[in-house]
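Hi R.,

Here's the chain you asked about this morning:
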Amino acid sequence: MSAEIKPGFNYDRKKLADIIPLKTPFTFLLAPSHVCNLRCFYCSQAKDREDLIKDGFRFKLMDYDVFLKFAKQLKRFPDRLKLVFVSGMGEPLMHKRLPDMIARLRNLDVAERLEIFTNGLLLTKETSEALVDSGLTRIRVSLQGLTSKKYKEISSADISFEDLRHNLAYFFKVRKQCKLYVKVIDVALEPGEEDKFYDMFRDVSDEMFIERFVPYQLTMGDYDNAAGVTTTVYGDKILSADVCPEPFFNWQIDVDGNIYPCCPLGLPKSFSVGNVNHSTIFDMWNGEKARQLRLQLLGKQRSAHYVCGSCRVFLSKLTPADRLDDDADRLIPLFEKL
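And here is the predicted structure, written out as tokens:
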């Protein structure tokens, strides 16, 4: 068996403009951890810890009670979500109860797919088996190079790359229904290593891909134009767009239970539309704060927003199916009468 070379993204999408307003979000990003075992140079985790704390960042794990509120509140929506994606500003596997979280979401039947995004370094045999048994749909593993030396350069970490490869091979062996997607960003490869990457993982993964180095966090710079926006993260030509589609279908929850109406990492707490400890996600999804944001975006006033105006993350993964600019005038009345 040989892995497919394909991006970790579903291109088989309905045209978003034809189906919004949605009664149920399509995707929710769940961040169980703001703690990470790597400090990749392009990530906020590489910044000075004290500076991050001053900016309001909290190095902590999600309380399980907060997770339970999140999971139970998703049942309020009339339909299942398409995806709950476990990721965030930390390493999900740092949370010891991650398999319990996945199993709970599966038992509640709140989403069609359950996926996690991880660096894979904590993927022991026991953890692999627990994740597979939890009902996980897919695990996405992000590599920071193909050697221990490259990991030191990219992530300031001393790791055994051979141990990582061995652990990924074991997961692939016991994966059952769970797909293994392995990816690496282009700047983590040495010149000419593309074929080496594919040869290395074609027999121990279901899907693999070399992603482009693009802005994916609000706090991420362009690193002397290395992280450009000429292509998407998957190498497609960047689209011209002003209307960000994320608040219309793709939300996230942080470790403290704050709910954000889009998915970029590193959002300020003031941008939150509420907290699961004080309100319900259903009410936030249908609330006035979210409605006004969507109307501002459809009105092509994104540049005037104190957060959205400086954000270009959505361009890094925008597809023709999600582009709303040409339909904005038609959609405004639909959201005005909600």
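One quick note: The chain has one domain: 4-336.

Cheers,
M.
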